[in-house]
Structures are given as structure tokens and as C-alpha cells.
From TrEMBL:
Residues 233-261, 615-637 are annotated as: Disordered. GO terms for molecular function: ATP binding; ATP hydrolysis activity. Keywords: ATP-binding, Nucleotide-binding. It comes from Actinoallomurus iriomotensis. Belongs to the CbxX/CfxQ family. Residues 684-823 form the AAA+ ATPase domain. This is Sporulation protein. Pfam families: AAA, AAA_lid_6, Beta_helix. InterPro entries: AAA+_ATPase, AAA_lid_6, ATPase_AAA_core, Beta_helix, CbxX/CfxQ, CbxX/CfxQ_RuBisCO_ESX, P-loop_NTPase, PbH1. Residues 615-628 have a biased composition (Low complexity).
Length: 910
């Protein structure tokens, strides 16, 4: 049986053909092919039956321009348009309007207007170029179904593809680019599936799903956006209770529902999102989504930002190289993260606030500029088998009402505390913290749990419990700490069971004034100081504890302390137990062996009564406060003041600053004498402004000033804590005050030195978070006026602007010390001082050349005063090494140490 070929109508100039496409269509039989001769046809086609319209000579040869309204309108039938160029009458009009039937476009170019699919049309658009003008390039509404395959979509004035109502769209191998608005926008109850697509160069989000829409992206790339890569709003991704059961078009000509078995109907698989002006992914309102095996990187906002009450699941997602936090979660959002990575962030790795609920498992967070995991507000986070490392701040910080549950998680290589609980609560099981300043710092009224954890290689304290705080510490191993193993601050109540400490460079366990720990089964091996130190009025119960080879008395009990020591044993060392006058310990069944000056019965015999134990004072005493008391010097104040004065005198130049510091020291001495005599001190502010250019010795003088005040007994420690804008100013609302408070707390008892303080008030940014840092600082200075000295430093003109930025600053900083630039002779002295320290000689000719060098050296913005002089010395030693490298065996020994004029670098090298 022969198949009937479709009839054919031809459109061309001359005899035997139709002059218009419309005429040919009207004359065509059902299913006919209309072949169009090259040329431009100004008409508006209305098609409602089966017909094919094709360019006779291929793409680019036939142009249909609308005379009015759309150039092509399809109301029904199987309409095929092939290789045509179709243009609208006006940029605001649709070039093609598909209202019904199953229209198909192949190899067409649509320009100057949009493709609109509406009603119940089931459209297929393949290998087409769609260049919109005003509004969306492709607009899908109603219950339409549309397939875009291997297309290029552009819209200079609006969105690329937009779907509304209950429209369905499936895009495969399609490029959406250079859209003035969003690349793809789904709203209402629309559904979309995008496979192997690229969305780039958009003015707003690359893809935005809102309303009740659903979305699947697979193997897609979203990049170079003017806002987010993916934005989810409203209830997008929340699966409806039941599908609508709508008819699917033939040949896959509609988007399938997302096949995720999970509860969300937005799914991204193997997608890449990068170079976004905003967050890589933003999920707001009640939106929900699943991201699987995706890569988010090089974003100018957060990598992934979740707000509202939405939900997000991240599986094997990498977020790296972002200019903000890697993952930020606020509001009441729920986030589940598995097998992923957050790295190289310019802020936090993970930031959570509000009532956020997070669970992370087998996840890695590293190389963050701020705290790796920051929990604030009422956020809750569960970390299981996670790895946190390489941050200059905290590994994990828990603030306000936040809660942390961590299991088998490792925190290492952090610049501050491994896990810092500052309010809120925490439970840590089987975790490891290493290579941090402090292992755990628990400052909360709750009772955090620390069980079966390991803490090691920390610079200061293993575990610190803040004033009045509590904790339960079970089965913890503490190894190699630079200071105290466990430090219990004033009034703390802690339970410690079956813990061990080895390699502690300070005291094993320090219980502060009024602390009441209950300690069972504690083992302290070879502490450099005391095994257990009980400060004034401390109490508590110590049972079955073992202390060996303590560098100081194994157990030291200060006056008024009243602990119960039961079945404790000391081995090795000089002293087993020291009890000071006024202490009232209860000692039951304790003993020692191998102790050179033992008080307890040897071999574990009956213990002496508390009154029979010898009281020892002086050098045998252990620690009196966290790290400061362990570093106490035994030098007399007069001797220490003389040393500091000599060190000040050795500084090059700075004659006016030296006079000011000496004058302030004498004034402080007079203040102290008046106070000791019962006289009121004169009005005086110890806070200072250091005004001067870089490299003029401001930090060194600040350290010496703290030393003077400590030697006079006016500061408890006199240590120096340096800070800048990055240490004080946070990235979110509510983040700045805790950061400023944390830095300030570290400086209590010493000097807080804020370099380039004017950076807290950037020019023209009145709403900058730096103002919050200043306000917080002013209040803290008032609350702790006798406990800390604050020095702000920077360029003279900028410092005047800084002081004028807040009314409270001027009254607290009443004295300015001016650090003048070094002249050439002083710079030469600095070079010669460094040469002497490193055993180099500078002959007279070299000194003269140095002086000429510094006279000729430009003193622009890059000039660093003393820092420049030290750099010159370093360059001279390098050039010296190159000069004599070939004659090391034959040369005179003096050649190894003599710097000559030719070793000076060219001025442009400095």
C-alpha cells in the first residue's frame, strides 16, 4: 500500500505560486507543506490546523515580520515551523504566540519579541535562537507544556525564560545568556527541568523559582550573574500533597516532576554555580531544595544562604573560594549536609543564627578567614564525623542560646580556641581538638558535656570553664598543653570523671576562688607545675586521683580552701601536698611514694590530719590564675621598672614619646601612692592615642607601657593584645558585638592595641558595622576602666577623624602621643643595631653610604620607617651573600661579617 505524500504549496514571486504565506496556508490541505522562497514577508499568520511552513533555501533566507500583533499565532493542530526568521511588530509584543495544539519550531530565529506559549499548547522548540527585547524572551503560562532543546535564549530587557501558572518546561542543552533580568524564572505552580544547560550573564539571579513552583537542574552551569546563581522564594520546592494528574505531551514534550524521593521538589544534581554577584544559592521564605554533587565557588556573597523557614539538603556539595561565609543559615531554616566541603571563605565557614536547625555529617570546613563554625541566636547544630581546620579564629563558637552536639569531630590548626561556648550549650562526644591556642573554653550557665574527647598540642589551656560555669567532663585525654590542663574559674561547678593529663607545661587542674569541682579518677602525669591547685576558698571532692612526677607540689591547697581528698595518690617529685595557713582540707586514705619531701604517708598508709600537714609558701606555690599567674615573674617591681626603662631608652629616636611615657609612669606612681594613703586619685585616663606613620615603634611602646603599669601593680598582667578591624567587626547584624567583646576579654589585665583604628569608621559609610564595634568598645572601657588600657593607633589626620566619630571616644582618649618619622641618621642607627645583633660589621664607608641612601630614598606611601630600615638590612645581607658566595673558601674570615657600600640595594628595590 503506497503512503500518500503530503501536498505542497509554494510561496514565491511570479506565476504559479502564492504571494503570501497566509494565502498558501489557506489553500493548503490538511498536513500540507508550505515552502517559502527567500525574502522578507510582512504579515501576521494565524494557524489552527496541521501544516508545515519551511524556508525553501534553509535558515536565514526567509524573514516573517508581523504586520500587527504576533508574527505567528497557533490556535491548534500540529504546526511545524522550520528554518524561519520571525520578528514581532514591536519589542513589547510576542513574535510567536502558541495557544493550543502541538506546535514545533526547528532551526528558527525569533527576534525583537518573545515566544509565548499559553493555554493548553504542547510546544517543542529545537535548535532555535530566541532574542527577546522587552520582557521575557520565552514566556510560558496556563497549562502549557514546552520543550526547549539546543536553543540559545537572550533577552536584553527582561528574563530569559519565565514560566507561570501551571506551565511545564523542559530545557536540554540550552544556553540562556545576556538577560537583563533573570535567566529562568518559575512562579505560580510552574514546573521546570533543565539538563545540560548554561545560564550566564544575567542582570539578576540566573535561576529564580518562587511561588509553589518545582525545579530540577542537572549538569547545569550558572555563572556571571548580577545577583544569585539560584534563588528560591515562597514555597518553591515544597512538594504538593498530590500531583495534579495533568496529561503529559507526547515524545517527552513536557517537564517531568522532580523524581527526588525526598520531600522537596527542587533538585540540583551535578551543577556548577560560580562568579555570582550575590550568594551562589539563596533559599528564602519557605523554599526547600536538594543539592547533590554540586560545586559552588567564586561568589561575591555567601556560597549558600538559607533564611526564613525553608529546608535544604546538601549531599557532596563543595563551597569554596567565596567572598563571604560558605554556608549561612538564619531564621527557622532546616539544613542537612553530608559528605561535602566548605573552604577558603572570606568570612565564616558555617554561620547559623535565629532558630536554624542544622545537621552536618562527614563534612569538612577549612581555610576560613573568620570562625569556621559560628552558632548564634537559638541555632542548633549537630556535627558528626566532621573535620574543621585552618582558621585564624575559633574552630567552633557557640553564642547566646545556640546549641552544639558534636560527635567524632576533629578540630585542629585554629588560631584561637578550638571550641568556644559563650552562652548556649554543647555536648561533645569522641571529638579531637589539637593545635589551638586553647582547646575548649566553656563560658555558659548551662552544663556542657565533654565525653571521651582528646585535646592535645594546645598553646595555652586544655579546657577552661568560665566564672560561675559548669560542665561534665568524662573520659577526656589532655596532652601537651602550654599552660593549665583544666582551668576552673571562680565559682565554677564541674564534674570530672576518669580523665588523664600528660605533658602539661603548667598545672594539671586549677580550681579558682570558690570553685567546687567533683573529680573522680583523674590522672596527671609529669605536670611542669602542680598536679592539682586549689585557690582561695575552693572546695569540692577529689577521689581516686593519681599524680606523678609533678614539677611543683603535686597538690597545693591555698588559704580558706576546703576540699575533700579521698584515696588520692602521689608518686615522684619534690612535694606531695602543701596546705597553706587557714586552709581546711579533709584528707582520707591518701598516700604517696618516691616523693623527696613527703607529707602524706608513704605506701598509702593512714593520712595525717589537715592540721598536721606542713604549710609551705614562696617558690613552691603553683598557679594563681589562668595563664597570667603561671607566668608571674619573681623580680621586684623596682628591678622590673629599671629593665623596662632601659629597654625604652634603647629605642632609636622617639625622644618626645619617651618623655611622655616616663612622665606617665611617674604620674601613675603618684596615683598609686595616693591610693595606698587613702587619698582619692586625680582624674586621669590611662587610654592613649598613638599618632604616627607605620614603622615608628608604636606597637613596641604599647608593649612597654603595659609592662610599666604591670610593674606598678596597676594592671594584673600587662600583656599586649593586638587587634584591627577584622578582629572587631563582624559580617552580619549581631556579629560585631560578640567579636569585639571576645577581643576585649583577652586584653583584660593588659593593653588592647588597635592599629589603624580609623578603619572602624570608613569614609562615607555611616551604617558600617564598625560603628557598632566602637559603641561596644566604649561601653566595655567604662565597665572595666581599671582592668584594661586601650591604645588606638594610626595616621595622625585619620586618628582625629576617628576620635570625632563617637562622642564617647574624646572623653576616654584625652592624651595623644605623636610618633615622628625617623630621620636618616636614626634609620642608619636601626640598620647598625640589627647588624650588631646578627654579628655583621658596618665600616665607616658603609655608614656614610647608608646615610646617603636614606637621604635619597623616596618617602611616599610605601615608606615604612623602622620597617624599611630592617628591610634594607635584610637586602644588604642577601646581596652580601651573593657577593662572597664564590669565594667562601679563599676569602678572609672578616669577609663573612663585613657589609660594604656595594651591598646596599637600589632604592627602587625597597
Amino acid at each position: 500500500m503506497l503512503t500518500k505524500r503530503p501536498s505542497r504549496e509554494r510561496v514565491a514571486p511570479g506565476w504559479g505560486a502564492h504571494s503570501t504565506i497566509g494565502a498558501a496556508v489557506r489553500a493548503a490541505a490538511e498536513g500540507a507543506v508550505v515552502s517559502v522562497h527567500p525574502g522578507e514577508y510582512r504579515e501576521s499568520l494565524v494557524l489552527d490546523r496541521n501544516v508545515t511552513v519551511v524556508a525553501e533555501k534553509g535558515p536565514g533566507t526567509v524573514r516573517i515580520t508581523a504586520s500587527h500583533g504576533p508574527a505567528v499565532t497557533v490556535h491548534g493542530g500540529q504546526v511545524v515551523l522550520r528554518d524561519l526568521t520571525i520578528a514581532s511588530a514591536a519589542p513589547s509584543d510576542a513574535a510567536i504566540l502558541l495557544r493550543g495544539g502541538t506546535p514545533a519550531l526547528h532551526g528558527c530565529e525569533i527576534t525583537g519579541g518573545r515566544v509565548e506559549v499559553t493555554g493548553d499548547a504542547m510546544a517543542t522548540v529545537g535548535d532555535c535562537a530566541i532574542n527577546g527585547a522587552d520582557g521575557a524572551a520565552v514566556r510560558l503560562t496556563g497549562t502549557s507544556r514546552t520543550v526547549l532543546e539546543d536553543c540559545a535564549v537572550r533577552s536584553a530587557g527582561g528574563d530569559g525564560v519565565t514560566a507561570d501558572d501551571e506551565a511545564r518546561v523542559e530545557c536540554t542543552g540550552t544556553r540562556i545568556e545576556d538577560a537583563g533580568g533573570r535567566g529562568a524564572h518559575l512562579t505560580g505552580a510552574a514546573r521546570g527541568r533543565f539538563t545540560r544547560c548554561e545560564v550566564r550573564g544575567t542582570g539578576a539571579a540566573a535561576v529564580h523559582a518562587e511561588g509553589r513552583s518545582a525545579l530540577v537542574l542537572r549538569d547545569c552551569r550558572l555563572y556571571d550573574t548580577g545577583a544569585q546563581g539560584l534563588r528560591l522564594s515562597g514555597t518553591a520546592g515544597r512538594r504538593a500533597p498530590a500531583d495534579d494528574g495533568g496529561e503529559r505531551p507526547r515524545d517527552g514534550a513536557a517537564a517531568e516532576e522532580p523524581e527526588s524521593s525526598r520531600s522537596h521538589a527542587v533538585l540540583l544534581g551535578r551543577c556548577e554555580i560560580f562568579r555570582t554577584a550575590g550568594a551562589g544559592v539563596l533559599a528564602e521564605d519557605e523554599a526547600a531544595a536538594v543539592l547533590d554533587d554540586c560545586h559552588v565557588h567564586d561568589t561575591r556573597g555567601a556560597g549558600i544562604l538559607v533564611s526564613g523557614t525553608g529546608a535544604l539538603e546538601l549531599d557532596a556539595v563543595r563551597v569554596v573560594d567565596v567572598a563571604d561565609s560558605g554556608l549561612a543559615v538564619t531564621g527557622g531554616a532546616t539544613v542537612r549536609v553530608r559528605r561535602g566541603e566548605i573552604a577558603r571563605t572570606a568570612a565564616n565557614g558555617l554561620y547559623a543564627a535565629g532558630e536554624a536547625d542544622l545537621a552536618l555529617s562527614d563534612h569538612e570546613i577549612h581555610d576560613t578567614a573568620f570562625t569556621a563554625v559560628h552558632l548564634a541566636g537559638g541555632a542548633r547544630a549537630a556535627l558528626t564525623e566532621c573535620r574543621i581546620r585552618d582558621t585564624p579564629e575559633y574552630g567552633v563558637r557557640v553564642c547566646e542560646r545556640a546549641e552544639l552536639a558534636a560527635e567524632e569531630t576533629r578540630v585542629q590548626d585554629v588560631g584561637m580556641t578550638g571550641v568556644f561556648v559563650e552562652g548556649g550549650d554543647a555536648a561533645l562526644r569522641g571529638c579531637r581538638v589539637s593545635r589551638a591556642q586553647t582547646g575548649l573554653d566553656l563560658r555558659t550557665t548551662h552544663r556542657p558535656l565533654v565525653a571521651d574527647c582528646e585535646i592535645g598540642d594546645v598553646a595555652e589551656i586544655g579546657i577552661q570553664v568560665g566564672p560561675g560555669g559548669g560542665a561534665v567532663i568524662e573520659g577526656v585525654r589532655i596532652q601537651r598543653t602550654g599552660s593549665t590542663g583544666v582551668f576552673l574559674d571562680t565559682g565554677s561547678v564541674v564534674r570530672i570523671d576518669d580523665c588523664t593529663m600528660t605533658g602539661v607545661e603548667g598545672t594539671g587542674l586549677y580550681a579558682g576562688d570558690g570553685a567546687r569541682p567533683r573529680v573522680r579518677g583523674l590522672t596527671v602525669e609529669r605536670p611542669a607545675r602542680n598536679g592539682v591547685f586549689l585557690a582561695k576558698a575552693a572546695a569540692g571532692l577529689f577521689e581516686d586521683c593519681r599524680i606523678s612526677e609533678a614539677g611543683y607540689p603535686a597538690i597545693y591547697v591555698e588559704a580558706e580552701a576546703a576540699p575533700v581528698l579521698r584515696r588520692c595518690h602521689v608518686s615522684g617529685g619534690d612535694h606531695d601536698l602543701v596546705v597553706c595557713d587557714g586552709a581546711e582540707p579533709v584528707i582520707e586514705d591518701c598516700g604517696s611514694d618516691g616523693v623527696r619531701d613527703a607529707v602524706l604517708p608513704q605506701g598509702g598508709g593512714a593520712a595525717p590530719s589537715a592540721r598536721a600537714v606542713t604549710a609551705v609558701r614562696g617558690p613552691a606555690r603553683g598557679s594563681g590564675s589562668a595563664a597570667a599567674a603561671e607566668d608571674e615573674t619573681d623580680k621586684a617591681p623596682e628591678e622590673r621598672l629599671a629593665e623596662l626603662r632601659a629597654e625604652l631608652d634603647r629605642l632609636v629616636g622617639l625622644d618626645g614619646v619617651k618623655r611622655d611615657i616616663v612622665g606617665l609612669t611617674k604620674l601613675m606612681q603618684m596615683v598609686k601612692v595616693r591610693q595606698e594613703a587613702g587619698l582619692p586619685p586625680p582624674p586621669l585616663s590611662r587610654h592613649l592615642v598613638f599618632a604616627g606613620n607605620p614603622g615608628t615603634g608604636k606597637t613596641t611602646v604599647a608593649r612597654l607601657y603595659g609592662g610599666f603599669l604591670h610593674a606598678l601593680g596597676l594592671l594584673e598582667r600587662g600583656h599586649l593584645v593586638e587587634a584591627d578591624r577584622g578582629d572587631l567587626v563582624g559580617e552580619y547584624v549581631g556579629h560585631t558585638a560578640p567579636k569585639t567583646q571576645a577581643v576585649f576579654r583577652r586584653a583584660l589585665g593588659g593593653v588592647l592595641f588597635i592599629d589603624e583604628a580609623y578603619s572602624l569608621v570608613p569614609h562615607g559609610q555611616s551604617n558600617d558595622f564598625g560603628q557598632e564595634a566602637i559603641s561596644t568598645l566604649v561601653k566595655l572601657m567604662e565597665d572595666h576602666r581599671d582592668d584594661v588600657v586601650v591604645i588606638v593607633a594610626g595616621y595622625p589626620e585619620e586618628m582625629r577623624r576617628f576620635l570625632a566619630s563617637n562622642a564617647g571616644l574624646g572623653s576616654r582618649f584625652t592624651r595623644t602621643l605623636t610618633f615622628d618619622d625617623y630621620d636618616s641618621a636614626e634609620l642608619v642607627r636601626i640598620v647598625r643595631y640589627n647588624a650588631d645583633r646578627h654579628q655583621y660589621a658596618c665600616p665607616e664607608g658603609t655608614v656614610e653610604s647608608l646615610h646617603r641612601f636614606f637621604e635619597d630614598l623616596p618617602r611616599g606611601e610605601q615608606f615604612g620607617n623602622g620597617r624599611t630600615a630592617r628591610q634594607v638590612f635584610q637586602l644588604m645581607t642577601e646581596r652580601h651573600a651573593m657577593r662572597i658566595a664564590d669565594d667562601l673558601t679563599a676569602g678572609d674570615a672578616r669577609d663573612l661579617t663585613t657589609l660594604l657600600p656595594e651591598d646596599l640595594p637600589p632604592t627602587q628595590a625597597v
